[in-house]
Amino acid sequence: MNINTVTTKPHDRMAKALSHEMEAVNSLIRTRMASEHAPRIPEVTAHLVEAGGKRLRPMLTLAAARLCGYEGDHHIRLAATVEFIHTATLLHDDVVDESAQRRGRPTANLLWDNKSSVLVGDYLFARSFQLMVETGSLRVLDILANASATIAEGEVLQMTAAQDLRTDESVYLQVVRGKTAALFSAATESGGVIAGAEDAQVQALFDYGDALGIAFQIADDLLDYQGDSAATGKNVGDDFRERKLTLPVIKAVAQATEEERAFWQRTIEKGRQQDGDLEQALAIMGKYDTLTATRVDAEAWAEKAKAALDVLPEHEIRDMLRDLADYVVARLS
Amino acid sequence: MNINTVTTKPHDRMAKALSHEMEAVNSLIRTRMASEHAPRIPEVTAHLVEAGGKRLRPMLTLAAARLCGYEGDHHIRLAATVEFIHTATLLHDDVVDESAQRRGRPTANLLWDNKSSVLVGDYLFARSFQLMVETGSLRVLDILANASATIAEGEVLQMTAAQDLRTDESVYLQVVRGKTAALFSAATESGGVIAGAEDAQVQALFDYGDALGIAFQIADDLLDYQGDSAATGKNVGDDFRERKLTLPVIKAVAQATEEERAFWQRTIEKGRQQDGDLEQALAIMGKYDTLTATRVDAEAWAEKAKAALDVLPEHEIRDMLRDLADYVVARLS
Questions:
Q1: Minimum distance, in Å, between the CA of residue A176 and any CA atom of chain B
Q2: Which residues of A touch B153 (CB under 8 A)?
Q3: What element of type H or E holds A101?
Q4: pLDDT tens digits for B227-256?
Q5: Domains in chain B with CATH codes
Q6: A74 vs B: CB within 8 A
Q7: Interface check A136 vs B, CB under 8 A
Q8: CB–CB contact B130 A116 (8 Å)
Q9: Rounded to whole angstroms, how far apart are CA atoms B28 and B26?
Q10: pLDDT digits (tens, 9 = 90+) for B49-108
C-alpha cells in the first residue's frame, strides 16, 4: 500500500478512478428520474438525489465492467438502473419502517406522505426497468429480475422474522442477502456480463458482491451496538429499541439461559421495554462475547470477498475492490 | 349475432373459447405467486387469487396471440405477467387509497397491514419481471417496461390531480391511460408481438387495448354517478365523497358559473362536504347534461376500439373482442 492507499478511503479512490463514468451515471439519473407529466415525481426524486449517498452500488457496476475491459457505454445505464432499484427500495423501506430520517435528512414519507413514497418508488422501479431493457442484454435482465425478487422476498421475510426468536443465523443470512447482498452481487455480476467476461469471472464478480454485501450488512448491524453515534449517525441500540433481531442478539438467544430467554421474549418479541434494558442486553451479549463473534463473521465474509477476486485480471480497480472489502470491516475494530 | 352471443357476456364467451389456456395461466399464477422463504407472501397472494376477478387483462393477451395465429406457449407467461402487474398495482392502490374493501372482500392492507401490501406488491412486480424475461423477447420487455412507467406516472398524477379543479380532460385522459388503458394496451400489443404479427396488426392491437381501456374507465367513472349499487358493488357518489375529480364533474367544472365553481372548490378541493351536497352535485351535472356527454365519450372510445380491429384477421376471437367493446358501454344505457 502506498501513502495514498492508507490515507484515502477505498470508495473515494474508486470514485476518483471512475469519475468520468460516475458523472455520466449521475447525469443519466437526473434525466430519468424526472417526469414530464407528474410534478410530484421530480419533487420527491430531487430530494433523494440531493441527499447524495456514496453511490456505492452503481460504482461497483462500473468497476466490474472496467475490470473486465469493457469499452461500450451500456454500463452507464446499468449503473443508473442499480441506483434506481436501490432508491426505490429505500422509499418503500421508509414507509414500512415508518422512518422519519435517512442520511440525517427527513424522509420523503415525512416530507410528503406514504402515498408519494409508495408510488414514486414504483415509478423508479419502472424507470430502472426501462433503462435495463435499453442495454439489450437478456442475461442482464435475468440477473436483475432475480435480484429484484430476492430483495422483495427478503424484505417480507425481515418483516415477519425480525421479532421472532426462532429466527436463526440461516434466516438472518437470507434477510441480509435480500436487503443488501442481492443488489451488490447483481451490480458486480451484471457489470461483468455486459463486458462479456468469461463465466468464471462473472461467477467471481457475483461471489465478490455477495460476500461484500453480507460483510457490509453484518458490520452495520454490529455498529448499531458498538459504534459511536457521531460516526454512524445512529444511536447505539436503535435496532434493540426497534426490536430488530440482528446477528449479535441472535447469537445470544442461541445460548440463552431460561431467564435470558424470558428477557429477549419480553424486550424483542413482546416489545415491553423499560429503562436499563439496553444495558442488560449489552451485558448478556458481553457474557457470550457475541459482538466479537459477529465481528469474526463479518471479517470472514470480507476475506471471502477478497478471495473471489483472485480469478480476475490484475488491475488497479481489483486492488481497490480488495481494499474496499478490508475497509468495510476495518470500521469494526 | 346468434342466440348464444346475445345471452352470454362476451368475456364469458372468450373465457370459454380460451379455457384451456386460461387454466394454464391460472396454474402458473398459483405456482409463481408462492414463496419458498417468506410465509407471509403465500398468505397474502392466496387471498388475492381466491378473490378471483374476471382476469380480463390476461385474457386479452391470450386473445391477441390466438387471433394472430400463435402456436407457442410464451403467451401463457405473458398473460400471467400482466395479471401479476395488475395485482401488484391493486395492492399498492389499496394502500394509497386507504381502501377497506375490494370485490366485496376486506383488502390485504386491512387483513394484514400496509407494510405487507407494499412489500408483497413489490414481490409480485419482481415475479412478473422474471416471467417476462423468460419469454426471451426484448420487444415484449420494452412494451411492459414502458407500460409500467406509464402506470406509475398515472398513479402519481392522479394523487395530485384528483382534487385540483385545474384538472382538465387531457389530464384526466393521462390519468386514465395510467390507471387502466396502459395495461390493457400492453396486454393486447404484447400478445401480437409474441405471435410475430406484422407491424400494422401490432399497432391495431395496441390501439384496441388503449381505446377499450379508456372506454372501460370512463364507463366506470360514469357508473359511479348513475349505476345502481347492487350491480356495481359501490354506492352512488363514492367518487364525489372521496373527492375524485372524474369526467362527469370535470365537464361540469368547465362550464361552471361562479357560484357553482365555489361549490366544487368547497366540496372537491377543500373536502368540506355536508348533507345534500351529492344531490347538489348531481343537479349541476344534470343542468349541463354531463352524464350524457360522458356516455357519448365512452361510446366513441368503444367505436374506436372496434374500428382498430378491422386490420386483424377474421376470427371468432375478433368478433368477441368487438362485442367486448360494445359490452363495456352497453352497461351505461
A1: 13
A2: 35, 37-38, 41, 123
A3: strand A101-102
A4: 765 565 667 898 999 899 999 999 999 999
A5: 3-330 (1.10.600.10)
A6: no
A7: yes
A8: no
A9: 5
A10: 766 678 999 999 999 999 999 999 999 999 999 999 999 998 898 887 777 776 677 777
